[in-house]
Design a protein that fits this description.
Blueprint: H1 2-10, H2 39-50, H3 68-71, H4 75-83, H5 109-120, E1 150-153, E2 158-160, E3 167-173, E4 181-190, H6 193-198, E5 199-207, E6 217-223, E7 229-230, E8 235-239, E9 244-251, E10 258-260, E11 262-268, E12 277-284, E13 297-305, E14 310-318, E15 323-331, E16 347-353, E17 364-365, E18 373-374, E19 379-387, E20 414-421, H7 424-444
Parallel strand pairs: 8-12
Antiparallel strand pairs: 1-11, 2-10, 3-9, 4-7, 4-8, 4-11, 5-6, 5-9, 12-20, 13-19, 14-17, 14-18, 14-20, 15-16, 15-19
Helix pairs in contact: 2-5, 4-5
Bound molecules: heme C.
Length: 445
């Protein structure tokens, strides 16, 4: 823990005008609970909002939390998971950096207290007349990004053998795109429940010319629990006519032969409409060599220099079993570089995931009014911590030295960061607008 403390608490207080951290998740308005919470009155509404999308028959979670009868046997486990903020999966540090996100499912402290008090009192049902109306769900296949305009699917499933090591497979699909298009949102996922069980993660790449560049350009990534990438307003990603999609699948055999299929959903701008900004998702802060000694917590650092001013739309740490925490901070260019006494560098923490849970690859999308605006020359600094001790319950073997690699027993350390580069004038205007909004809200307080 000692390694974590410093960086996680020391920074973040000095809010630079560029990305003021304000507000709290929308759910903060939830009324505080009555003294004796019951399932019907107090707990069911929380489960509806934050749990049932996954905890219902056929969805990704192991059990249903739709009714009192479903939920009651899990009461103790529910208390433990919500109190540790492991459920719902949303592991961003709420006390550091930006705290306002789009679609934040996390529970408020008051909601957690309600659940804990309810369980401690024996998890009473209360009066069934108090139950809220059951939540209605779209079908299981529902897309987080909304109904896609286009879905690209593998032509035929890949047959994964029952046993053996991690299986890494490339499947190229020609979707027959006949014209250029700009994508406003992307989501990829396994195509059926069987595939959900064996797909560790997969990436999609745009292959414009298989002879010239067979790897192509990174488009997005799916991993268990991941939602999707929605670009900021008026931003799109160009996919050229004739582009092929390469699925790079990372599969874990689970004891039975499994036909695996995955799909990619795209929402696109109407034909002929060209968005003002081009957004893309960038690998940032890869640590060049990982050195994770047995029984220790290891820290690594990686850097990415922004060549132009940028708007950062989202952050997603990527590590494997031993991942413990990751922070993203901005090291700003020195505005007084010409002065006789330059520096010190201004540094600001943007986000930390301080409770990283392997298996949950969550994209944290910043609310539009606080999404970081970073000047050209800013260095995005990614710090990661890997826990190779026996305290990490995901650790396959705390006696092993671990290095970098793509198998799940190796480690990785980088962030997927969705950004849009801005023209200098546009950037300055946005910074000025932010500063003005911050002044106005200060005056109102
Ligand atoms: C995004 C999907 C998702 C959401 C939202 C979600 N869960 Fe889960 N939950 C899972 C999955 C998948 C598991 C299986 C274990 C894992 O992968 O962590 C799980 C496991 C659990 C477990 C442990 C079950 C066991 O086997 O011991 C509990 C308890 C739980 N969830 C409660 C909740 C509660 C309470 C909420 C809402 C406050 C919630 N979950 C929200 C997907 C979700």
């Amino acid at each position: 823990m000692g390694v974590l403390r410093g960086p996680l608490v020391a920074i973040g207080a000095g809010a630079f005008v560029i990305c003021v951290a304000v507000g709290s998740p929308a759910s903060a308005q939830t009324p505080s609970s009555s003294a004796q919470p019951t399932f019907a009155k107090d707990v069911a509404p929380i489960l509806q909002r934050a749990c049932q999308n996954c905890h219902r028959p056929g969805s990704v979670a192991p059990m249903s939390l739709l009714t009192y009868q479903d939920s009651r046997p899990w009461a103790r486990s529910i208390k433990a998971k919500v109190a540790a903020r492991e459920m719902p999966p949303w592991h961003i540090d709420r006390n550091v950096g930006i705290t306002k996100f789009k679609d934040d499912p996390s529970l408020t402290d008051a909601e957690i207290a309600t659940i804990v008090t309810w369980v401690d009192a024996g998890a009473p049902q209360g009066n069934p007349a108090d139950l809220p109306k059951p939540r209605e769900f779209s079908d299981l296949d529902a897309w987080y990004i909304g109904k896609p305009d286009l879905v690209v699917e593998m032509k035929k499933p890949y047959i994964l053998p029952p046993n053996g090591p991690d299986n890494i497979v490339d499947v190229m699909v020609d979707p027959g795109f006949t014209e250029d298009m700009y994508v406003m949102a992307i989501e990829s996922k396994p195509a059926d429940p069987r595939s959900f069980k064996v797909v560790h993660h997969f990436t999609t790449n745009l292959v414009e010319d298989p002879d010239e560049d067979p790897t192509g350009l990174f488009l997005n990534e799916y991993a268990l629990g991941k939602n999707g990438d929605i670009f900021p307003p008026n931003s799109g990603r160009l996919i050229k006519a004739g582009t092929k999609i390469n699925f790079n699948l990372h599969l874990n055999p689970r004891g039975e032969e499994t036909p695996v299929s995955v799909k990619l959903g795209l929402k696109v701008f109407p034909r002929g409409q060209v968005p003002k900004y081009v957004a893309f998702t960038q690998h940032m802060g890869d640590a060049p060599e990982l050195d994770i000694p047995p029984g220790q917590i290891a820290r690594h650092d990686g850097y990415f220099r922004l060549p132009r001013p940028a708007l950062v739309a989202s952050f997603q740490p990527h590590m494997h079993n031993r991942g413990k925490a990751m922070c993203m901070e901005a090291i700003y260019p020195d505005v007084r570089a010409d002065s006789a006494r330059p520096g010190p560098a201004r540094v600001e923490t943007i986000s930390c995931v301080s409770n990283y849970q392997f298996g949950w690859h969550i994209t944290y999308p910043y609310a539009d009014d606080v999404a970081p605006l970073l000047p050209a020359g800013t260095i995005v600094h990614i710090t990661s911590w890997h826990d190779n001790t026996q305290n990490n319950r995901w650790n396959p073997n705390p006696k092993n030295w671990v290095g970098g690699g793509s198998r799940s027993i190796d480690e990785m350390s980088f962030a997927w960061v969705t950004i849009t580069y801005l023209e200098e004038a546009d950037f300055k205007q946005r910074v000025a607008e932010r500063a003005k909004a911050a002044r106005t809200s200060q005056q109102q307080q």
